[in-house]
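Notebook, bench 3.
Goal today: get a predicted structure for Cytochrome b5 from Lutzomyia longipalpis so we can plan the truncation constructs. The sequence was checked against the plasmid map this morning, with no discrepancies at the termini. Length recorded as 80 residues. Pasting the sequence as submitted so the record is complete.
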Amino acid sequence: MSDVKKYTMAEVAEHNDKKSLWIVIDKSVYDVTKFQNEHPGGEEILRDVAGKDASEDFEDVGHSADARKIMKKYKIGDLA
């Protein structure tokens, strides 16, 4: 029995602005609301993919091992 919360894409899509910003990367759901101002690429990039699957965008940029480590603390669940 896993205690990882499951979210639907419809639930993620509801969190699509700067007040509540969720994204999906590789079937994991992240609440990056508090990370917007810290994002090295700028907050606009996160807002562009708010409420969406950002896997392709994330991989295209080639994020570092450090970036992948940082994002773990923002994970709130998995895609159902």
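The chain has four helices and five strands. Residues 31 and 46 are 11 Å apart (CA to CA).
Flagging this for group meeting.
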